[in-house]
Amino acid sequence: MEPSKASQTALVTSLMRAVHTRSDPAPLLDDPWGDRLVPEPVQAGLRERAVARLDPALRAEAAPARVLDAAMRANAAYPGVILRSRYTEDMLEAAVARGITQYVLIGAGFDSFLCRRPAWAEGLQIYEVDHPATQQLKRERLRHCGIAESDAVHFVAADLSEETLQSALARSPFDPAQPTFFSWLGVTVYLTREANLATLRAIASIAPEGSELVFTYIDEAALQPGHAGTEGFRKLRSDVSGVGEAFLSGFDPAALAALLLETGLVLTEDLDGEQTVVRYDAEGVNGLQRAGAGHIAHARVNDRVKPRAVSAAPPAA
After folding, report:
1. Which residue, 178, 237, 246, 255, has most beta carbons within 10 Å?
2. What is the pTM of this model?
3. Handedness of CA 58, 64, 69, 71 (dihedral sign)
């Protein structure tokens, strides 16, 4: 992404969660904040582009807001955005019941959990780690929406292509002795493999045994030259590259468990797009389709496989 601009994909995924909440028949999320956290000029630009893609004969009578909603739902990323959010918050709720006291959102974007915190999460300390430009706009929008900053919410500005998660959290009140839940959604594909591995090692090194991680990734085969893929995935890849957020790396699902062990984590579950749809929309009520080559994985920190403490030096870009 461009250093001086907030992530465009983070803005769009925020709108997707709001569209799902108000337009799908049986929403998996109750997240109305996307329409509030995304600035109106950004939404206006997206509406204009969505209308411009219509057949010229339909543009005159098109309702721009409805056209944008339809465009969000037609985006190949839409199912994955909704499903990963629901899965993560299900896993987080279960982790809190087991004693987790800290929640770290890596690449938090415009996630609205802090705005709609459920009763079961009242005791959590929340740490939002994100690129400085994106986080600055997020905080401005929170103030605009009347969301007061809280002692239980900590914003950590960091470019994880230049700095390790370990060093970023060291600048916050994060307590490495407390069990922690990490979410890392929609980020790994935009980082190099080296940066991703550095973050995985950092999580295993700075959190005690029993800490948990949910993260998304792309099957690396889908990024290889000549891979057929779906038309939707090819368009998505072209679109994100066009806004300066190109896909850079993925993982091999067959090798993921062994790779995580090397970083100090134990894989507990890895779902591809079809498996996630079966879990949350098996009857097709919401019309969610398989999310391309996307996966969502759940892992735990295990002291028996922890690597040595990682260096605070920046990962290779």
Report:
1. 237
2. 0.89
3. positive
Asked if residue 295 lies in contact with residue 270, where contact means CB atoms within 8 angstroms, the answer is: yes
Residue appearing with tokens 């040595």: 308
| Cβ atoms < 10 Å from Cβ of 254 | 10
Q: What is the pLDDT of residues 169-211, one digit of tens each?
A: 999 999 999 999 999 999 999 888 998 999 999 999 999 999 9
Contact 216, 273 (CB under 8 A): no
Count of C-beta atoms within a 10 Å radius of residue 211: 24
- In contact, 118 and 110? CB cutoff 8 Å: no
CA distances from 110 to 69, 95, 122 (A): 18, 23, 20
Give pLDDT tens digits for 238-291.
Answer: 666 655 657 788 999 999 999 999 999 999 999 999 999 999 999 999 999 876
Q: How far are the Cα atoms of 40, 65, 86, 192, 281 from residue 21, in angstroms, in the given order?
A: 19, 15, 12, 33, 15
CA gap 241, 48 in Å, rounded: 20
The single residue listed with the structure tokens 């969505």 is 50
